[in-house]
Design a protein that fits this description.
77 residues
């Protein structure tokens, strides 16, 4: 069974360094398929990577806690 992890996605048009926590499925190649949160509203929030995107994450410190942040889109083969 695939592992579901917590990952943060940067919000665009929200000022500097605003992130939304969501979950994602960790794949064998270390990419993450982002899940849609229950509160996600595409008309209200502009995520840097949309739900369903496959991304690679990087560790980052947010509010004194090290978290994974979606950093770049996985390129198709």
């Amino acid at each position: 069974m695939a592992e579901v992890i917590l990952v943060y996605v940067r919000l665009l048009d929200e000022g500097p360094d605003v992130f939304r926590p969501t979950t994602g499925t960790l794949n064998a190649d270390d990419s993450i398929e982002l899940h849609k949160t229950e509160a996600y509203d595409f008309g209200d929030e502009n995520w840097e990577f949309l739900p369903g995107s496959h991304v690679f994450a990087a560790p980052r410190w947010l509010d004194g806690i090290e978290v994974l942040v979606a950093a770049r889109r996985k390129e198709p083969f």
